[in-house]
């Protein structure tokens, strides 16, 4: 099977995808639709000037400690040369988003997506969604069946994006995974992360990439007997609840980045409370069934029941 070096429109399908299975062809088509809807052209990056542009984009997004950038141009160069995933979303000649990933054991079946970011100039256009669908199609064309990545569990928009819009599955809670990053997003808080796995051919993932969001409704769950394990008080503080129940609801703050900037101590308190509840519950057999966009994780102990 011939593998195209870019996925931007369905017009390229007939030639490059001869020999591809129907699921892969559909993934390429979905990626093309997402790129067009976002108004971007997504392609692999190998040239030094473009790699430097990725470094500058990430530097502007994260505003890192100069001694600890998310990536360096040299690392990007090595990853790209070794055949890993380094791509950019372009609006004309301007880079507005980028995503970097690398193969992980078993190298011919799985990838780890290390970092993705979109310029504030392209906010609200779903460029991040287009990048992830491009990454999925790119991986499937190479026989990869799963992509994993991490995100900050306190960032509600990322929880909704990953668990709802992409239908990824939360696999593991990782306390202070990266250590101190001291950048403009994480501040001096611990870098707790949720590891998610994206089964690229799973029916729910295919549906999500076609535009069907995997939804949760915390109020409906509460009406069916869910208990509140963490709530948000009127003053914005976390309120620990109870952990005894088949379905648990865990609140997160609406905007942890602004909260951390305004009140770092309160941000750390949210980190501690949510960490304690999620690690305790997941160790006790609960799993993250999804995220309500209003700001609630839904955890279940009954693995035979799926969200409708």
From TrEMBL:
<dbReference type="InterPro" id="IPR038764">
    <property type="entry name" value="GNAT_N_AcTrfase_prd"/>
</dbReference>
<feature type="domain" description="N-acetyltransferase">
    <location>
        <begin position="40"/>
        <end position="184"/>
    </location>
</feature>
<dbReference type="InterPro" id="IPR000182">
    <property type="entry name" value="GNAT_dom"/>
</dbReference>
<dbReference type="GO" id="GO:0016747">
    <property type="term" value="F:acyltransferase activity, transferring groups other than amino-acyl groups"/>
</dbReference>
<keyword id="KW-0808">Transferase</keyword>
<dbReference type="InterPro" id="IPR016181">
    <property type="entry name" value="Acyl_CoA_acyltransferase"/>
</dbReference>
<protein>
    <submittedName>
        <fullName>Putative GNAT superfamily acetyltransferase</fullName>
    </submittedName>
</protein>
């Amino acid at each position: 099977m011939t593998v195209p070096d870019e996925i931007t429109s369905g017009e390229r399908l007939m030639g490059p995808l001869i020999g591809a299975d129907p699921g892969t062809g559909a993934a390429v088509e979905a990626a093309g639709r997402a790129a067009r809807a976002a108004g971007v052209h997504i392609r692999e990056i190998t040239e030094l000037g473009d790699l430097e542009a990725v470094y500058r984009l990430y530097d502007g997004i994260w505003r890192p400690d100069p001694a600890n950038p998310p990536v360096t141009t040299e690392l990007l160069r090595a990853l790209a040369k070794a055949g890993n995933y380094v791509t950019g979303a372009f609006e004309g000649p301007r880079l507005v988003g980028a995503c970097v990933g690398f193969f992980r054991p078993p190298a011919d079946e799985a990838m780890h997506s290390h970092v993705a970011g979109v310029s504030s100039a392209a906010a609200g256009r779903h460029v991040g969604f287009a990048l992830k669908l491009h990454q999925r199609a790119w991986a499937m064309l190479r026989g990869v069946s799963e992509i994993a990545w991490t995100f900050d569990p306190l960032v509600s928009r990322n929880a909704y994006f990953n668990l709802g819009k992409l239908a990824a599955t939360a696999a593991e809670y990782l306390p202070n995974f990266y250590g101190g990053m001291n950048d403009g997003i994480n501040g001096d808080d611990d870098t707790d992360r949720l590891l998610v796995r994206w089964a690229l051919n799973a029916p729910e993932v295919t549906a999500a990439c076609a535009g069907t969001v995997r939804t949760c409704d915390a109020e409906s769950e509460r009406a069916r007997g869910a208990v509140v394990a963490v709530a948000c008080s009127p003053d914005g503080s976390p309120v620990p609840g109870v952990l005894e129940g088949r379905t648990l609801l865990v609140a997160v703050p609406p905007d942890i980045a602004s909260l951390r900037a305004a009140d770092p101590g309160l941000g750390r308190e949210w980190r501690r409370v949510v960490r304690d509840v999620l690690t305790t519950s997941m160790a006790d057999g609960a799993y993250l069934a999804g995220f309500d966009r209003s700001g609630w994780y839904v955890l279940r102990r009954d693995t035979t029941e799926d969200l409708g």
